[in-house]
Amino acid sequence: MRAEERSEVDVSTPQVVVHRDKELMAQAAAARLITKVVDAQAARGSASVVLTGGRNGNALLAALARSPARDAVDWARLDLWWGDERFLPEGDPERNVTQAREALLDSVPVTPERVHAMPASGGRYGSDADAAAEAYAAELAAAAGAEDHVRVPSFDVLMLGVGPDTHVASLFPEHPGVRERSRTVVGVHGSPKPPPTRVSLTLPAIRAAREVWLLAAGEDKAGAVAVALSAPGELQAPASGAYGRSRTLWLLDRAAAAKLPPQLYPPASS
Ligand SMILES: O=C1O[C@H](COP(=O)(O)O)[C@@H](O)[C@H](O)[C@H]1O
To answer: Which of 45, 119, 131, 244 is 20 to 30 A (C-alpha) from 11?
Structure first.
């Protein structure tokens, strides 16, 4: 069986899509997300999506905000969660939720109770990121169904930006968080990327999603993409341990795909 045929049937094989540049990638990913949410709402009544921070995640949300097709989404029947958060005070411009509100959420009619931001520092949990992580894990567990073995909801789509060091969410190479096997959310201390204190979903929580989409654009991501897709261990390259139950999709621009070995490069790209 040829590689392109196998990727249609083997859910453990990541699918790679390469777009001309980062703007087109953001627009195409936004269109893809709209379709996925509309389909999930038609099939199950509501949809759940896990958002990512970072440049590519925010570019996708901004593209979605500009798309006329955004009105096809029933925003009131959408649950939004986060893959990670910088543990900073409420409203801090570096918080992923602050950036998501600015890029999209302030301009669409989401239901506030369905916007599940991770806790901020200085609030109920003070400076205790571990307590904040525990609280978020409890919120996820409360939303999980009886059939969900990992105590998180069956997210329809979980998006992750890929860092130049192959980190996803706030799971960094060789850091304790990437080794976590029982908890669904952890406090992250001493992050190599500022700010040092964060809260993150773990790999078991990520892998409970129906679909995991990894976003990477720009030449600074090319090495990370090539390494993560060349099957190293997830401790060294956390992005390689991020996959979905029914689909794993890598959405790239040409610059980020530049170092992919030829056998991993998809046969067609836009
Ligand atoms: O700090 C973070 O970084 C990653 C990647 O961000 P990027 O700007 O290099 O694309 C992001 O996905 C994560 O959510 C965020 O907290």
So the answer is: 45
